[in-house]
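Hi F.,

I've been meaning to write this up properly since the lab meeting, where we talked about keeping a consistent format for the predictions we share between groups. The idea is simple: the sequence comes first, exactly as it goes in, then the structure tokens exactly as they come out, then a line or two of notes. No screenshots and no reformatting. I'm using this chain as the first example so we have something concrete to point to.
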Amino acid sequence: MSWDQREGDVNLSANRLAWNGRPQGDANRALLERDEAVFLRQSLSTPCLSSIVRAEGSWLEDANGQRFLDFHGNSAHHVGYGHPRVIAAIEDQMRTLPFAPRRFTCEPAVTLAETLCNTVPGGPWKALFAPGGSEAIEIALKIARLATGRFKTVSFWDSFHGAGFGASSVGGEALFRSNGIGPLLVGSEHVAPFACHRCPYGFPSPSGVPDLDRCKMACARMIEYVLDREGDVAAVVAEPIRAVPYLPPPGFWEEVRRACDRHGTLLIFDEIPTGLGKTGRFCAHEHTGVTPDILVLGKALGGAVLPIAAVLAKAELDVMGDKSIGHYTHEKNPVLARAALATLDVIKDEQLVQRAQELGAYAVTRLEEMAATIKMIGNVRGAGLLIGVDLSTPGGDPATDAADRVLYAALARGLIFKVTMGSVLTLSPPLNITLEDLDLGLSFLEDCLREESTNFENSNDVT
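Output, unedited:
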């Protein structure tokens, strides 16, 4: 069974069923039952893990009084939950100008566009806003089609770019593409991604550092091969640093950028989960030395309060004045814009980009120390406060069952994170998390890993 098939069945795992069956208190259980009675059920979301009554800083609290240190946050809580400056900005804007109908502008929206265009390196840029990341990705796809006169895209298997039909088409997770959802957009080509620790091209590196003399960067050459053969691709769509996370091999994006330029193909970077300081740079692509033609930001832009995403396109792509590519009711909503401006101010004033870099390095060092004595930790990797702990069986295969057990053991202790690719414990705490809370979360995780490893090292946990 593939890992993404397991993702679809995650609601039915023995560990999930045991979690749902635990004593939860009358208030919590009642709300969970009401939720399941009225919401359409879907994989990954139903039944809910718990009910949340309070969110503050790095912490959530459920109706039963249990507190959870959140190293997940759907990648939206870069400035933590309920940051007072974000809340104050929203309250002020709601009293002065709560809404601006489409086809009108307002000062907060213009200021937000100016701020983003002036902050992101590599401009000049022009912007459009959308109510969410899926819509923003689809705006980017429309720009690429109209600017190039082409419709084909190249993107990665195992990627996630949103849940809309266009976003699902360029995405590469079977969970969001299969099981009767299609047909999707024609011309959506996919290649295997970079993933040096578990290289799909047959050159795995246990350390995660690629042997370029051996692999010849097959992942980049495959993109160039497809662009050569197709000849008329509108855009390559990808995360510059994969949110799994996986880091690109040195020089990967330079090779892809050159191939795109040779073929007149645009490069679209999706930084919805990884931008705005998460990786220790304001934009994740700054690590690569490559500037995209179109950049998509989202999730954390609304300060973990309101939904807003942004598309930044090179100014020379502003050639669609007679087309409609992103008209949304809340396109220039002043409240959403003020939330985003306050979030950007917090990131700047509290030096959260630098903080992510420093705390991320600290966390990786602690995790590498754990890996020295916990054998099932196959690899630790990350950038800033986007960190992956890849669990492996004694034979080196993905330890999917062990990862699932560790996930729920940590949840019981009060730590939330995400398991990606079946075996990668993905840690993504807020950028303003205290060192004490970061240490506490890592200690929770270490306890769970050591408990699991007691029985794991002599087992054959192969799925």
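Notes:
Confidence is low (pLDDT under 50) at residues 1-5.
Residues 435-456 form the longest helix (22 residues).

If this format works for you, I'll send the rest the same way.

G.
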